[in-house]
TrEMBL record:
Domain Enoyl reductase (ER): 16-333
InterPro entries reported for this sequence: ADH-like_C (IPR013149), ADH_N_2 (IPR041694), ER (IPR020843), GroES-like_sf (IPR011032), MDR_fam (IPR045010), NAD(P)-bd_dom_sf (IPR036291)
Protein name, per record: NADP-dependent oxidoreductase
UniProt-listed Pfam families: ADH_N_2 (PF16884), ADH_zinc_N (PF00107)
Entries under PANTHER family matching the protein: PROSTAGLANDIN REDUCTASE, PROSTAGLANDIN REDUCTASE 1
Keywords: Oxidoreductase
GO molecular function, one term: oxidoreductase activity, acting on the CH-CH group of donors, NAD or NADP as acceptor
Amino acid sequence: MINQRIVLSSRPQGVPVPENFRTDEAPVPELADGQVLLENLVFAIDPAVRGMMDDVKSYMPPVPIGGLIPAMVLGRVVKSRHPDFREGDFGRGFAGWERYSVLDPGGVAFENVRVADDLPLTVYMGAVGWSGITAYVGLKRYGELRAGDEVLVSAAAGAVGSVAGQVARLSGCRVVGTVGSEDKARIVTDLLGFDAAINYRAVDDLGAAIDRHFPEGIDLYFDNVGGATLDAVLPRMKAFGRIPVCGMIANYNNQSEPYRLRNIWQVLVNRITMRGFLAYEAGDMVHEAEDALGEWVRSGQLVATENVSTGIGSAPAAFIRLMSGETMGKTLVRVDDRVSTLADRGA
């Protein structure tokens, strides 16, 4: 079997360009004991991957030149030498932009996925997948979300932020989101039900705009971006406020010269709990999150937003759009049009 793959051709300088990627082919290796062969159906296109394209230290190793672009994938088991996985099962794990993946359930985050007939496959890579799970556990465990909280969510039209704001609202909180355009502001308020949105590109003073929406301060800030937004938020947190740090997308395209925070001392002044987290480390909450998110999507209480490209070769362009700030909701690539999407079902 020959595997089609997208690999790193050169390291991006700022926002990636098509020349940073190339298509490669390689034989699919034979399975060792304990391994599973997955035919990938959907890739998640995530901003965190941009950090792995630079040759800098992070929580994941950098991608070498010629290396596979990493991604969370959803696929069907076509061969298994592991007792917990059977042919035909759906599996989700960390692999890459490729048609087939050989995964070791004992060595990577890889799990069986309970796919419901009334939900499209793509939702298991978005609102009911790791984006939604990240939002859920980030708020509930690391943000210690409480009914009545005043909540601010950055990148509120994105894959995680769009779910985080809705989960907070469904949990009895008042929610405001920051976005980068008026179109995104309308979607966040009119479609997703946020109480308000701030277009940070349309205000002269982000801090003053936040003050207007939070005159008494912020209880919980769900941080997807870091940078200047985090700097503006820190002095506006209430005493003992909580900041679960999910991402730092403002710095991903310029990791060599990140934004320098001026207000970090407010963590002490306001006794803020600020914690970075990785959702898979809250493994005991995954099924709780999946069940809650699935029911909310099914009932229409939570709107899952996604933008889907088709074909492995469309992955670089989808990633470039994401890192240019042009996308809303979860950015996904389906291998072919046999994979159902929310749009296919009229959602």
